[in-house]
Amino acid sequence: MRIATLWIGLLSLLLLLPGSLRAAEETEQHLKVGVLANWGYLQAEKRWQPMMDYLTDKVDGARFSVRPGSFEELNAALEAGEIEFIVTNPGQYLYLSNQFPLSWLATMRSRKHNGATYAIGSTIIVRADSDYRTLYDLKGKVVAASGRHALGGYQATVGLMQKLGMTPEEFFKEVHFLGFPLGPLIFQVRDRNIDAAITPFCTLEEMVEKGVIRAEDFRVINPSRPAGYDCQVSTQLYPNWSFAASEEVSYNLTKQITRALFELTPEHPAAIEAGTQGWTAPISQLKVIQLFSNLHYQKQEMSKWDLLLEWMEANRKWGVVIAMLFVIATLYHFWIEFKFRQKSDTLVETERELKRKAVQLERLHSAAVIGEIGAGLAHEINQPIAAINNYSEGGLVRLRSQTQPDTEMLALLDKINQQSQRAASVVQRIRGLLKRRETVLERVNLLTLVDEGLSLMKLELERHRVQIRTQVKGEPYFAMADRVGMQQVLINLLKNSVDAMSELSGHQAEILIELWFDEQRVHLKVIDNGPGFADDPQTMMATFTTTKSEGLGLGLAICSDLVKAQDGSFSIRNNEDGGGCTAEITLTRANEA
User: Fold this and answer.
1) SS3 breakdown of the chain: % helix, strand, coil, rounded to 5?
2) Buried b vs exposed e over 220-243: b needs ≥16 C-beta within 10 Å?
3) pLDDT grade, residue 547 (50/70/90)?
4) What is residue 90's predicted lDDT score, i.e. its pLDDT?
5) CA 58 → CA 21, 104, 248, 270, 272, distances in Å?
6) Burial of 141 (C-beta count, 10 Å sphere; 0-12/13-18/19+)
7) Has residue 542 got a pLDDT over 70?
8) Statement: the pTM of the whole predicted model exceeds 0.70
9) pLDDT higher than threshold 50 for residue 298
């Protein structure tokens, strides 16, 4: 009976044990401690995880783990609340304390140098076979350091150079920040990729101790070895690493951690693995504060661009990916903008084309109306012209039948008869144009055509006091043309020139008619010295486009159509000298009869 009761009790205890363990885990705090990974992430975890296990054993209800990282990564982690503690050099501690409230718990005692608490400085290393003996010999050379915020890896050297009247940005040719781990700094010097390396205190000796380099291959610039210290240093020494807590950590927890750190003995495995003889109360940071004050640290904070470049150097793969994404996004943006502009231009051009079509439609409608009116007028005018022609012919017959006819009256009636016949031809030509009949070409003497046109315009030219000059170039010949149509074109051009020049007062109006006969084509030009066209002359040849207040805008359009129907070309332009315009007609030479 007692045995059964015992077994039931044990079974109940076993069933309750997992629940108790889970409850304990739920109440246990998981705290992360950020540490500088100056020898790489794996090495940092190996070095500091035993210390975290030690704190886990000493502090009730808390479990500690390591969060290794670079200066920038630890800054970001602390800002994001991803770590509660940080183990770092006093330079970064002061930098962070200006941005976040931190509590300084303890300062680490170095396992070397008889447990010294001043164990941070810079060692400037060059090749042993180089010509560099002093810091002055490195002027204009290429150097490398771990990081811009590294107290021992860079800032201590900057403080030394400032005392010597040097500025790194002007003194060195280039300064490369290689980040962590520290080994590549020495390897870059060994491989002659750089002239010198700025390394934290004891970096050279630790690498020699590990057997990765030989001490005789390197030389320390501006060397010194303080009494009781095991390594050479180029600058003065500053306080060792510190253990700091964020403001989110409770007072009771920080008190337990501080007590646990002070109780750590040099013989404890955690102290041996971390390379420390233990921890002591925080020591004065006056030297670091003075250093930063001399460097104007607050004024020398890195710009966002410098931070971006440093981050890209430390994370080159991600930097390349981001750069590629930026380039692709930029190209895509330009492509979208190009397509948008292309579509916009297409829409604008379509709108313009629609407006042109609307204008053309309106002109075609007007042309249709004019065509109907013109056909009716031509039909009606044809009858009185026929009557004038019959009357003039009857008068000529009666005068000629007389024994002594009146010669002046006979000449007058003969001119009336000729003009009535010409008017009839013009009417027939207009009717043919309106009905789109095929133009009949014949051999035409342009010299005679010009003389007849000037004879018809004689009274108009005299009334407006217009001087006419003619000029012939080349050997004259017959041209293939529609005689009546060409007569219409010439009269219209002369009338346009006279009207344009009549608007100018105190101006000697002149018209030059130039005929140039080349081998196959004849060029007829009507050149005036009037005001010319204010707009593009080519637009004046469009139907219903005119500059006259009472004009219909049909003259030049009809002239252009008539000349093109005769296999010729018609153009109009302002003169280059800025006065007047030139109308040019080109016709084909007629074959020899």
Assistant:
1) 50, 20, 30
2) bbbeeeeeebebbbbbbbbbbbbb
3) low
4) 83
5) 19, 19, 20, 12, 17
6) middle
7) no
8) no
9) no
